[in-house]
Amino acid sequence: LQRDSRIFIIGCGISAIGAAQKLLKHGFCNVHIIEATGKSGGRIRTGRLGDNIVEIGANWIHGPSKENPVFRLACDYQLLDKESMSEENQAVDIGGHPLFVPNWFTSSGRKLGPEVMGPALEFFMKILERSQQFYDSGGEPMPSVGKFVKSEAKRLAPEEWKEDQANINIRMAMINTLLKLECCVSGTHTLDEVGLGAFGMYKTLPGLDCTFPGGYEGLIDNMMKELPKGIVSYNKQVKCIHWNNTKDEPDTTATSGPVKIECVDGKTFAADHVIVTVSLGYLKKHKDTFLSPSLPLNKLHSIQRMGFGTNNKIFLEFEQPFWDEDCELIYLVWEDDTDLCDVVSDIKTSWIRKLTGFTVLKPTERFGHVLCGWIAGHESEYMETLSELEVLHSVTQVLRKFTGNPTIAPRKLLRSQWFHDPYSCGSYTYVAKGCSGYDIDNLAEPLPPNGSNSKPLQVLFAGEATHRSFFSTVHGALMAGWREAERLVSHYAPASTISSKL
Ligand code: 6YU
């Protein structure tokens, strides 16, 4: 019975691939994946900028150490360099904020040193750390991370820098830049939308974040090789999952089942179980039609309440670097931005002000001089609607202003467009104001709900948004896929134990 159960997994990102691997390993042999696009990987997507490999989606293994299953797989497949795998790297514990070597450029064409900017960075990180503590202690004084960080910064700054009044304004402008950077980290428009009480729910693992020298997609390729050929139906968008499906013939025929999957091209599949791994953004957009009967109200509310925002990258290639040789992160500081506001007032004319800075792609011998710009929120969504030339023009203007060099000209540009990607509808999940772990657990709860008389476990939910402490990450997505596969394994385990005893 277990081996024959028809299990369909919707989407072929890492969560789905992980679920399929685990099910097959436990003897399920009727497992299928339906993917809307022409390839596997979802938000893990490696692209090219000229001769260079660049990550359009996920970038790092966050917390690469033994506890992280993505790290373990990457080691098994030999996809990482020696340094990333060293015990020393695994032991580094930086709480999710790698200490990149920074360069600071300001809007008046000045390059500022660590003596001016270092204290602002430290000051900001301390407040941010405090904002994570309310998850354990409770008693959050404000609903959002943004309100808390901004009001604490305003309250404490005069005292903190009373000996150094001259630099207060530029440091406040720096904090503005850091707020925008945090929008990228959390994948949100503004930190005012991120819930303070649940901010500390996201857990970091030890290990110095590392990248895949050959591209993140190498992980997907290796995992896919372990699945049987033909397990994925590509270019097939699922339109509706009909659960509690009683309209068909009795359950004894091969063409019927408690679940019927209807695709946009009209094709249907009968299933015993469906594991949904589509993004929270997709669920938000299609929540009223993706399931029939519709999702139960409590689940609908959690989908609405949880946050799913946009974080995009803008890759630029240069003939020559304008940054220091050891620089890993370039901050753009707008000197007139001293009011601690992480959104832009007129998106159409000033969207570029949301661009917080650039990470430098390393090592230079491999990449040449390539930067990855980071921009989150509605400004980022607007950027997606512009042509590459328009984006290149705006970025070039800003770089000329900030470096004071009127001849700087990136020679190539590539940007991501996650918000307008019809199958991602944004970048990743954050815990929005008013949300709690309950909403994530609620989203992960299978259908029909507990206590129902219908056939159990018809629709299960995986994907990064369903992991309580690792949402927004690749390892969270993988673990959520495994979790739902294990749910099915243990559902059938008693039956198989009985039959093996007979
Ligand atoms: C990480 C990182 N990283 C940058 C950017 C992005 C993401 N992440 P998938 O979407 O992959 O799969 C679903 C599939 O379903 C997909 O193939 C669809 O085509 C398909 N589908 C949809 N609809 C369908 C339909 N109707 N029918 C059939 N198929 C359908 N994670 O670990 N390191 O550096 C980054 C980053 C720009 C966009 C990231 C990173 C997130 C991961 O990419 C993402 O979680 C997983 O790939 C999702 O896999 P999945 O299988 O669930 O879905 C305090 C606090 C703060 C909290 N946040 C801090 C953490 C920081 C997170 N950082 C991320 C940063 C970067 C840079």
Question: Which SSEs are present, and which pair or pack?
Answer:
Elements: E1 7-10, H1 14-25, E2 31-34, E3 46-49, E4 52-55, H2 69-76, H3 82-85, H4 87-91, E5 102-106, E6 111-112, H5 114-131, H6 134-137, H7 145-160, H8 168-186, H9 217-225, E7 232-233, E8 238-242, E9 259-263, E10 268-271, E11 273-276, H10 280-286, E12 291-292, H11 297-305, E13 307-309, E14 311-318, E15 329-333, H12 347-350, E16 357-360, H13 364-367, E17 369-376, H14 377-385, H15 388-403, E18 412-415, E19 428-430, H16 437-444, E20 459-461, H17 474-501
Parallel strand pairs: 1-2, 1-11, 2-7, 5-15, 8-12, 11-20
Antiparallel strand pairs: 3-4, 5-6, 8-9, 9-10, 13-19, 14-17, 14-18, 15-16, 16-17
Bound molecules: FAD-MDL72527 adduct (6YU).
The site of FAD-MDL72527 adduct (6YU) has 43 residues, from helix 1, helix 8, strand 14 and helix 17.
Q: What tags apply to this protein structure?
A:
20 strands; FAD/NAD(P)-binding domain; single chain; binds FAD-MDL72527 adduct; globular; alpha/beta; 502 residues; Polyamine Oxidase, Chain A, domain 2
CATH fold description of the largest domain: Polyamine Oxidase, Chain A, domain 2
By DSSP (H or I, 4+ residues per run), the number of helices equals 17
Distance between the termini: 15 Å
Bound small molecules, which ones?
A: FAD-MDL72527 adduct
- The proportion of residues forming helix, as a percent range, comes to 25-40%
| Total domain modules | 2
Major β-sheet, in short? 7 strands, mixed
How much strand? Answer: 15-25%
Strand order of the largest sheet: 6-5-15-16-17-14-18
Rg over alpha carbons: 24 Å
Shape: globular
| Count of strand segments | 20
Mean pLDDT: 94
The CATH class name of the largest domain reads: Alpha Beta
Weakly predicted, low-confidence segments: 249-253, 498-502
